């Protein structure tokens, strides 16, 4: 039971990390675009 809970927690953390990562990558690409101007 505890193992299943920790596995669920891990998947939540992974999905949050992917969301954060995509936002961060979008931010970086915007910054690079601004630097070109």
From TrEMBL:
Query: What is the superkingdom listed in this entry's lineage?
Result: Bacteria
Q: What is this protein called?
A: Uncharacterized protein
């Amino acid at each position: 039971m505890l193992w299943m809970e920790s596995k669920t927690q891990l998947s939540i953390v992974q999905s949050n990390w992917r969301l954060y990562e995509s936002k961060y990558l979008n931010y970086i690409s915007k910054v690079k675009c601004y630097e070109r101007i």
